[in-house]
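Board notes (copied after class):
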Amino acid sequence: MRALFLAVACFLLTASVMFAQAPTVAASPNTVFAGADGKFEAAPDTALVQFNISAQADTAKAAYDAASKQVEQVRQIMRNNGIDPKTATIGFYSIQPMYDWKTAKRKLVGYQVTTNVTLKLKEFVKIGPITQQLADSAVSESQSISYTLDNMEEAKAKAVEDAYHRARAGADSVAHAAGRSVGELSYASVDTFENVRPMPVMARAMAMKAEAASAPTEEFTPQSVNVTAHVNALFTLK
């Protein structure tokens, strides 16, 4: 019986994500190739509050001491809201000289100390008070908030499973139309994507609002976390 080669590509493109093209596969006779997109959507369980701490002074030590005082303010704000300061992480720490470039010969005018802090919150009701208190204390000029899943790998695995089932369904349809059936998986490739979108919060603007005003995010539900995956699969044919 003459060997039969079947190939099919099933793509479910979304408007927000563009997947890479299917890889070149050395398909053999009596195989079927299918590609499909899958997704997993869930409400976020973790909020990431990120902000910078920056201080400047005439000397490096004075700038460092000023930054240390601001960091202690952050620790106290966390304690006041029932959060262990150890749960916060520092992404970077830098100290840089500052120069006056108005003259031909640059003049050292001071030093700036900068660090970045990331705070994970499970209790979303604490986001408003913490960001407001950070703004009131003038610790940081800008903040950003993003929502994510604590176990992102599990979410990616579920998106991959969905994509695989769709690819398998496409392969089954083509095989059935040809009077054949799908056998074992011979090859597969996987790509996953996630849509964590930060929401900027301008600290100074928040500090200037009236105390009676509601927070901009009050009573709203955080955007769902969407994880998408693309699976290319090669099956044998029976």
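Comment from the instructor: The chain has two domains: 1-43+151-194+227-238, 46-148. The CA atoms of residues 207 and 222 lie 23 Å apart.
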